Amino acid sequence: MAVILWIPFLRVWWWLFFPLILSIELRTLYMWWMNWDYYYPKVKWVVLEITPPKEILTPLKAMEDVFTIMWGPLLNVPNWREHWCEGVMKDAAEWMSWEVASIEGNLHFYIRVPQDYRLTLETALYSHYPQLEIAEVPDYTKNVPQNIPNEEWDVYGEDFVLVQPSVYPIKTYEKFFEPQGEKIADEEKRLDPIASLLELMSRLGPNEQFWLQFITMGVDDNSEPHWKRDVKKTINKLAKRPEKKIATLWEDIGSVLKNLALGPQKEGSGEKATYKWYDARTSEEEDRELLLTGGEKELLIEVENKAKKPIYRTNIRGVYVAKRDNWKASHKTLTRSYFAHFVSDNLNSIKFSIVTRPKTHYIFRKRIPFLRARRQFRNFVTRLTPLFPDRKKEMALLNPEELATLYHFPIKITGLVAPTMSRVESKKGGPPPNLPME
């Protein structure tokens, strides 16, 4: 009956609904134009090569502080005018990339950062690592053909995601020390997981390259509204706390009557004895705390510690590029062994993304891998997210401690890595202040 009554109205006023429907798509097209055609082309990028010294005695806590310092500039939450009139993006407006590259076995550390934040980055690095050398260099990804894969070159790339929800942390650098702890005087007791990665990357031969990339975007509660809620929900689950419900009047009356029936409980003995009214709810919380095992308490502490620090939305990507005559299948997945360092039964771990890797077991078994490989190469060169324009899917939420564990300068350059990595042999200094000018 209601539909029949609407027919005369729609017959006359149907055209009013088209602007409403089209306005939704128009908003999407407008924001795309503002973000990627107006704002993004104006961002000037620089690629900085970081040359570390042969040995670093600075604790890895310093690299964590570098990531913490860069979180503030990268956050850059826009107001209404900046978003709608200048094209500044709302969810993680700025980003940068921390990279390790092996070019025919020669190892390099790179950081790709917007020009506006270069000074902040260099200041943070020099303040913690005075012996570093930083130089602006051309983008190394432009040294190979840009239409890979083709008849001469091939490429294979993988994005890496967290196995469990992002509220669970991975195994961080503090777990890689001997029981004595991190001591500057006992550097040999420090285990550096990145050393194995550099050792593998140094084995590449002619016409082979491997690129590892960590794209970081600073986020807060506005750009990740579900983060704090998921953390709180996980903590309550680990602590075995029931979901809070609004108690009814009868439940409150029942709780009071139960307490009155039990009466005051005696605590202590002799003259120091006191009486305290029994509270059933407090007793239940104490009982739940006693039920937690040692592993559950440790996991609860780790989740709480991760939530205390700033959060980056992070894309981890590894790409192997080589000429077809020099292609070695074992080299295309060498990062998997590196991320195996961070596997823990009670914590989070890292695995490759099935959604974006260039491999399929079903239909179009040649065409789909080709298109995915080309997209993977393009995303690395442009430093875009795995499922661009979506900037949230297939991404991990990591804090500075986790990022410093995954990306840092090697503690000591030894073995096969030593002849393949450029390094600062001696500290450079300025002229003495009393040097005569004439």
Structural class of the secondary structure composition?
alpha+beta
Shape: globular
* Mean pLDDT metric: 82
Give the amount of beta strand, in percent. Answer: 15-25%
Poorly predicted segments: 180-188
The fold-level CATH name of the domain at 44-218 and 310-420 is Vanillyl-alcohol Oxidase, Chain A, domain 3
Oligomer: single chain
Largest sheet: 9 strands, antiparallel
Main CATH class of the domain at 44-218 and 310-420:
Alpha Beta
Q: What letter string, H or E per element, gives the SSE order?
A: HHEHHEEHEEHEHHEEHHEHEHEH
Helix content: 25-40%
What is the number of beta strands?
11
- How far apart the termini lie comes to 103 Å
Q: What is the radius of gyration?
A: 28 Å
CATH architecture of the domain at 44-218 and 310-420: 3-Layer(aba) Sandwich
Total of helices: 13
Topology:
Blueprint: H1 2-13, H2 17-39, E1 45-51, H3 61-75, H4 80-85, E2 95-103, E3 106-114, H5 118-128, E4 133-137, E5 153-162, H6 194-201, E6 208-219, H7 225-238, H8 249-262, E7 264-267, E8 274-277, H9 280-291, H10 294-307, E9 311-323, H11 334-339, E10 350-352, H12 367-382, E11 396-398, H13 400-406
Antiparallel strand pairs: 1-3, 1-4, 2-3, 2-6, 5-9, 5-10, 6-9, 7-8, 9-11
Helix pairs in contact: 3-5, 3-13, 7-10
